[in-house]
Input
Amino acid sequence: MKRENVTYVTDASLVNCVVPAGRADAVLKAARDLGVGASIVYHGRGTGTRERLGLLGIAVEAEKEIVVMIVPNERRDMLINELFQAAEINTPAAGYIYVTPVDKAAVYIPEEVLKQLKDS
Amino acid sequence: MANYIRYGDIERAMGGGQRQISLDSLSPTLERDAEGNVLPVRYEKIRLSASDSLKILKPYFSVRLMDQVRAVVPLAAYLALFQILFLQHLVEDSWLITGGLFAVIVGLMFFMEGLALGLMPFGTVIGSTLPRKSPLPLVLLITLLLGIGVTFAEPAIGALKAAGQNVVVEQAPYLYALLNNYADQLVLVIGFSVGAAAVMGTLRFIYGWSLKPLIYFTLIPALGLSIYCASNPEMSKVLGLAWDAGAVTTGPVTVPLVLSLGIGIATAAGKGSNQLSGFGIVTLASLFPILGVMCLLVYVTLTITPGEIIAAAQGLSTATSVTPAWYETSPGVEVVLGIRAILPLVVFLFFVLKIVLHESLKNKSEIFLGIALTIIGMCIFNLGLTYGLSKLGGSAGGLVPIAFMQIDGIENSPIYMYSVGLILALAFAWFLGFGATIAEPALNALGITAETMTNGVFKKKTLIYAVSTGVAFGIAIGLAKLIFNLPLIWLIIPGYLFAAILTYLSSEEFVNVAWDSAGVTTGPITVPLVLAMGLGFGNATGAVEGFGILSMASIGPIITVMLTGLWTRYKANAQLKAETHKTTQLEQEVGAAL
Output
C-alpha cells in the first residue's frame, strides 16, 4: 500500500467559542460566512456566574455548547470580532471566546489544490 | 510579495480597536493566612445593572414564551379561521378571547417553568431516595397520596369544573350533581384512581407483570359498569364524563412526578433496567378514573334522587341572588382555585421530604421561586381557561352545527346543504384532532422511545402519524356521536372490545406504547378546548350532554397504533420470508451449477 506524504497546514489558530446551549447555530453561521470550512460543536455544563447571580441565575442556561474551529491567522481577529457579536458574548454569563496558536495541522487537501499551490 | 496589513492594526487605526487586559487583573487577589497558606476565595453575589439583567432575561423569556405560543396560536387560529371562512361568522368577544388566550400562554409559561424549577427537584430527590430508605408499603402509600395531589394540580382539571356550569340540571341531574355539588369528591375520586394506578403500575415494574392482563382486568369491570349505567336513562348521561375523566388526568404534572417515583422504586428493587420501565402507569392512570367516576356515580344515585338534585339546584339559583363574595366571582375564584390546586401538593412533598426522608434541598430560593411561579402560572392559566380556551371552544362548538342545521337566533342557517355541511363539520373535527396531536411534544418523546425499543422497525414518524390519525378519527367520531345523538355505550363497547382483541394479538412492546399514547396526547390546551367545543356543540344541537369526544380521542390512537404495529410486524415477517426464500433458491442454483 502506498503511503501518502503528510502536507502540514501552518499559520493557523484554534478558536474555541463557549456559548449557552442553543446559540451555537448563530456562531456556526457567522463562522461559515467568513469562510471557516468546518467546525465541531461539543456539549458541556458551565458553572460560575449562574451560581452567583442569585434568583436571576435561573435565566442562565447551565448547558453550554462549545464551538471549535481552526482558522487562518490572518483572519483570526476579524473572526473573533464577528463571533463576539453573533454569540452576544457581551452579556453576563453568556460564555467566552479563547484562541490558541496551532503549531501544525493535517487534513485532506484535494490534489488539484496542492498542485496549484506548488505552481504559484 | 503581497501587501499584508494585520486586521488588528486596522481596528486600532480606526479607533474602535482592541484593548488588552491581563486576566490577572480580573481575578480576585489571593489571601494567605499566617502560615502562608492560600485561603479559599470567597465570592460575593454578582450584582447586575438593569440593562444587563434585561439582556439575560430576554432570551430566557422569549424561548419559553414561544414554546407556548407554538402550542396555542395554531389551534386558536384554526378555530377562528374556520368560523370566519366556512361559517361566515366573526368570533364573538374576540378581544376578550384574545386576552384569555394570551393569559393561557403566559400562565402555561410560568406554570411549566415553575414546575421544572420548584416541583421536579422534589420528584427527583423523593424518587431516588424514598424507595431506598422506606419499606415498600409506606412507599406505595406515598405513591397513592401523590396521585391525589398531582391530580388536583393538573391544569386541565379546572376545565371539568368549568364544564359543569353549562349543564342544565333538569336534563341531566346526576351529571349536574357530579360536576357541581360533588365536584370536589369527583376530583378526589379521580385523584384516588390515579394514585391507585400509580401503585399498580409501580408493582408492575417491580414484579415485571405484563400489561395485558392488567388492561383486561380493568376493562371488564369498566365495561360491565358502563352497561349497568347505560341501562338506567338517568345514569347513562354521566357515562361520557366518566370515560372522558381518564383523558383529563394524564397531564404535565402527573406524568413526570408519578413516573419519577415509579421508576425510582423499580430501580431500587433492581428492576429499573427493563426497557419497558416507565410504561403502563399512564395507561392505568387513564383507565382507573373511569371506574372511579362510575363508582362515585353509583354511590350518588343511591344517596340522592334526581328530583332532590333539581329541587336543590333551583333553590340554590334563587338563593344566590345576594352578591357573592370576591372569591366566588370571576377573577377571585380562579386565583383561589389556583392556590388550592398547587399548595396541597407542595405541602405533601415537603412533608415527605422532611419528616419521612429527613432530606433537605439545595437551592432553596430557586425552589420557592419555582413554587411561586407554579401558583401564579396556575392562576393566570385558570383565568385564560375561563375567558380564552373555554369561550373559544364553546363558541366554535356552538357555531359548527350551523353548517348543516337550522339553529335558532342565527340567520341564514344552515349555510350548506345537509350532506355538505355534515362533511364539513366532521372534516373540521378531524383536522382539529390531527393538528392538535401532531404538534404535541410529549408524543415526539414517546416516538423516540418507541423507535429505540423496536430497534428502528417502528419509526418515530410512523407512531406520530398513527396517533394523530387515531385522535383525528376519535374526535370526528365523537362529534358524529353528538350530531346523531348516539348513546356513548354503542361506541365504547365495540371500540374497547376491538382494542382488547388487538391487545391480545400484539406484542408486549406495542401494547405498552399504544395504550400509553392515548394518555400523552391530551395536554392542558387540547382538553379544555375539546371539552368546551363538545359542550357548545351539544348545546347547539340539543344533545343532553357534550361529553364523550375525549374518550373517543383516547380509544382512537390505541387502535391505530396497535393496527400499525401489527401491520409493521406482518410486513417485516413477509420480507424475512421472501429473503429466506430467495437465499434458498440461490443456494439451490449454486448447488446445481457446481
Notes: The mean pLDDT of chain B is 81.
